[in-house]
Amino acid sequence: MSSNGDLRDAGSCESFWEPGNYKRTVKRIDDGHKLCNELVSCFQERAKIERSYSQQLTEWAKKWRGVVEKGPQYGTLEKAWHAFMNAADRLSELHLELREHLAVEDSDKVKNWQKDAFHKQMMGGLKETKEAEDGFRKAQKPWVRKLKDVETTRKSYHQARKDEKTAVTRETHAKADPSKSQEEVRKLQERVEKCNQEAEKAKERYEKALEELNRCNPRYMEDMEQVFEITQEAEKKRLCFFKDVMMDIHKHLDLSSNDSFRVLFRDLSQTISAANDVEDLRWWRNTHGPGMNMNWPQFEEWSPEANRTIARKERNSRSDDVVTLTNIVSAGEDLPQTPQETVRSRSDSVQYEDVRDLPGEKSVNALLPYTSTRARSLEGLQREELVKLGEEDDQGWCKGQLDNGEVAAGEVGVRRTAR
After folding, report:
1. Which of 1.20.1270.60, 3.40.50.720, 1.10.3470.10, 3.30.470.30 would CATH assign to domain 127-252?
2. φ and ψ at 120, to 5 degrees?
3. Cα torsion angle, 52, 57, 60, 61, sign
4. What is the top-level taxon of the source organism (predicted)?
5. What does 287-339 look like in DSSP terms, one character per residue?
6. Single pTM value for the model
């Protein structure tokens, strides 16, 4: 039912005072109960939308956070971009809270009020509906009985007047007809007089019944008003309750009034405003551009006192030996007593490959580059040659000579791979 709250359509339907027309007011009670269910369903559905939106925000933030992290954007603008994903996570939490308000708090409030306002009967229907129906019927019953008398007497009176008119018409025609005898005309005149007397009696009965009905009207109206006001009071409670619930829902939906919501977008705005193109360009210049440090090539004097970690790979007809030398020291230094104290790592070793065999010595090439991790070690380059002088001792050590004449000793580890 649609209404603008005015009286423009007040006369477009049958009056409330007519028999049985109170049923619209009685039906309003059932409608009120139904509207409670519809209000809950309406915002339960909105709660599902909020939950879905919250999940989509979270998924969106997760996806694009990874994209931005792996992407080429950098500096303060990258931080500003990430702020949108962080804001989405926080906004997702707010919409999840909103969903809880709608689906739980607001819905439970309506359901609990509905239980208190409407009571179902064992035989079906609502107690309030039956009470209103009985109240209106009881208030209307005496008046309806009088109304029926009025309707009966009215019909009798109208029929009497109709009969009278018919008799008068016949009498008039008979007087104008020469073929009619005086006796026939006299009988028609008696008929007209009789119908007139019956019409007057019917009129008296009709007026009396109407008078009786009018005397019942004030009492009838009072009784009907009393029952109607009971239903009005109940409906007023429902209308006021619905208004309060809708105001609560409005407060929950109006995130602009939520402090967390305002802080969220304030922080987002501040992060975006903090993006500094000058700072980002300076960072790029110093990190990837002309501002980077450079070790320009300088003259290096040859020195026999060099420490280097090397590895070698020996070959024979049956197997491949990968020789790893670590902890290179000068030939004049004492060899360590416990090889286990030497640190071994893939990043601290170089593999070498045999290139020629000479009596008492073997020449090998570096297979992998070596980056020094200790101050006393030397840098090794891929394919750099060195000469292994003799075989390893029982502790796994041997001597080696670089192609520039430096002599070094180191711990040897051998890995053999069958051909």
Report:
1. 1.20.1270.60
2. -80, 145
3. negative
4. Eukaryota
5. HHSTTS-----------S--EE-EEEEEE-SSEEEEEEEEEEEETTSPPPS-G
6. 0.62
Give, as one character, the DSSP assignment of residue 142: H
Report pLDDT digits (tens) over 245-267. Answer: 999 999 999 988 889 999 999 99
Phi, psi for 118 (deg, rounded to 5) = -125, 135
The structure tokens 């309060």 sit at: 244
Q: Which overall architecture, per CATH, does domain 23-118+254-268 show? A: Up-down Bundle (1.20)
Q: What is the pLDDT of residues 361-382, one digit of tens each?
A: 566 555 555 454 444 344 454 4
d(CA 224, CA 219): 8
* Residue extent(s) of CATH 1.20.1270.60 domains in the chain: 23-118+254-268, 127-252
Can you name the residues that pair with 357 across neighbouring β-strands? 362
Q: Which amino acid, one-letter code, is at 49?
A: I
Calculate the alpha carbon distances from 25 to 20, 36, 220, 235, 298 in Å. Answer: 10, 17, 17, 10, 104
Q: How many CA atoms lie within 13 A of 18 on its CB side?
A: 5
